[in-house]
Amino acid sequence: MANNGKNNPLKPILLVEDNDDDVDLILHAFKKTNLANEVVVARDGQQALDFLRRAGAYSNRAEINPGLVLLDLKLPKVDGLEVLKQIKADKHFRTVPVVVFTSSREEQDQIESYNLGVNAFVVKPMDFKDFIVAIGELGLFWAVFNEAPPAK
Fold first, then answer.
1. Residue 5 resides in a domain
2. pLDDT-based confidence at 10, cuts 50/70/90?
3. N or C end of the chain: which has fewer CB within 10 A?
4. Among candidates 3, 7, 40, which has minimal Cα distance to 150?
5. What confidence tens digit (pLDDT) does each residue in 111-145 have?
6. Quick one: pLDDT at residue 34?
7. Is residue 76 a part of any domain in this protein?
């Protein structure tokens, strides 16, 4: 799969996750579903914001926005809700789909995420097979099938 069927280059997926085991499982799930998008892993909220803003270690990255931000909430440095808030407040990033993928079952996290403009809120399944299926389907839908508005 070299492009998404719309003659656009594949956009990267920004995975914001500090748990090494979850990162490995997510990358495995994307590979298993043959998702060809580059996956950039940010281990904390500040790295995610630096990637988006092309700052620090990411100052030379391509100007294309990610096709999806897969965001954990419980992160070091800058928590996931603050990352979400900053993404949705910035005119350059607010149309980038953000899916919260978290182990938090706290109703307040879900309410706050939707109030901030999250596109989907998914609680990480405990079962390995369910986890792999959920990630694969998320990746395919948001990175391949979803029609994002044109970049400005």
1. no
2. confident
3. C
4. 7
5. 999 999 999 898 887 777 777 777 777 776 666 66
6. 80
7. yes
Give, in degrees to the nearest 5, the angle at Cα 62 between 145 and 100.
45
- Residue 73: domain span: 13-144
pLDDT at 148: 66
Predicted TM-score (pTM) of this structure: 0.85
- In 3D space, the residue among 147, 135, 142, 145 whose CA is nearest the CA of residue 31 turns out to be 135
Residue 38 covered by a domain? yes
Pairing of strands 13-16, 120-123: unpaired
42 bridge partner residues: 16
17: pLDDT strictly greater than 80: yes
For residue 126, the domain's CATH number is: 3.40.50.2300
Report residue 39 CA to chain centroid gap: 9
Supply 11's token pair: 């956009």
Question: What's the CA gap between 13 and 41, in Å, rounded?
Answer: 8
Contact 74, 39 (CB under 8 A): no
